[in-house]
Amino acid sequence: MSDEIPSKRSHEDLWVFGYGSLMWRPGFEFIEQAPARLIGEHRALCVYSFDHRGTPEKPGLVLGLDRGGACRGIAFRVAAKRREEVIGYLRDREQTTHVYREVMRSVWLENEPRERVAALAYVVDRGHVQYAGRLSLPDQLRYVRQGHGRSGNNRDYVLETVRSIEAQGFRDPQLHQLALMLHDEAPLHR
Asked: Is the entire prediction scored with pTM above 0.85?
């Protein structure tokens, strides 16, 4: 799907694809939401957080859409009259350090009749200094445990995302494994 800048179609409703905190805290007004699947990118804890869930000195770790696979999340439909306002809000929220590319992607709504829509999504920029790549589970745990930024602690971010995924009726095995480790407050090495 084209990476066309979403504000070019200001007369149309806007779909936004949420795969992390947007699922449980969208922060904008929408007129519809539906479980959705994006093909071609997957949810990964692959972004060092220097702002919302960490600092440059003590980075946290947040989700990004990274190349390959598929991702289940939530698509939110925003009325055309709120389109520019919501895009502005999302840019302020998601683009504080420009670690994401703002793109339009094909998303399959998991409703009847399983529509395909173009949705605004935030995909990690692999060339950005905050791109963490594929970290081991112990490394993910270390960053999440230390991370705290202006939006709160990193642990809560991961646990809320897992709760939201479960509420949608599916699992993300790696994120669920990390959540189990976060629930266990015992030291990593006994």
From this structure: yes
